[in-house]
Amino acid sequence: MGMLADQVAIVTGSGRGIGRAISHALAKEGAKVVISDINEELCQKTASEFQADGAEAIAVPCNVTDSASVAKMVEAIIAKWGRIDILVNNAGITRDALFMRMSEDQWQAVIDTNLTSAFKVTQPIVKVMSKQRCGRIINIASTSGVHGNFGQVNYAAAKSGLIGFTKTVALEYASRNITSNAIAPGFIDTDMTKALGEEIINKILDRVPLKRMGTPEDIASAVVFLAGPGSYVTGQVLEVSGGLYT
Ligand code: NDP
Question: What's the number of domains the chain is made of?
Answer without folding.
Answer: 1
